[in-house]
Amino acid sequence: MMSPRVIDMVLLFCAVPLLWAAITDFKKRIIPDWTWIAIVLFGGTSAFLLSYPTLPQRIVGFLLPGVCLFILAIKYGGVGGGDIKLTAAMGFCFGLYGLTAILFFALPPAYLYAKATRQRSVPLAAFLCIGFFVYIGALYMLA
């Protein structure tokens, strides 16, 4: 088992680009490429430092949401390329189960925001950031 300090560092390093992506997506509706690239790099580094999530869980976490969102973007629109890349990067960094928990906490507020503002497209990075911090808080409460 890896020490909590290493896990804290990985989470902290992911929080910075995710916060930047959330702010720029909310203000300008664009997600800078460096944010999702940094998250993928942190995920790759943490794959060597941490035993969980396993590499297969990271790969599935990368491919499954990315492919699903890509299909939705082609069929219905409303999902931007930055959203797809950021979600896939988070899936690689946190694995499929971690990303599922983050989406569980992110999508209901995104839905409520879309209904309240009557928008078809929402700044998904902002809600992924909310889901990330709720997920991290839940991890610390359970630990």
UniProtKB/TrEMBL annotation:
Record-annotated membrane-spanning stretches: 34-52, 59-77, 89-112, 124-142
Places the protein is found: Cell membrane
Main location, first listed in the record: membrane
Residue span, Prepilin type IV endopeptidase peptidase domain: 13-107
GO annotation, biological process: methylation
GO terms for cellular component: plasma membrane
InterPro entries in the cross-refs: Preflagellin_Peptidase, Prepilin_IV_endopep_pep
Domain of life of the organism encoding this protein: Bacteria
GO molecular function: aspartic-type endopeptidase activity; methyltransferase activity
Keywords of this entry: Cell membrane, Membrane, Methyltransferase, Transferase, Transmembrane, Transmembrane helix
Its membrane topology: Multi-pass membrane protein
PANTHER family in UniProt: PREFLAGELLIN PEPTIDASE
UniProt-recorded name of the protein: Leader peptidase (Prepilin peptidase) / N-methyltransferase
Naturally occurring in which organism (per UniProt): Geosporobacter subterraneus DSM 17957
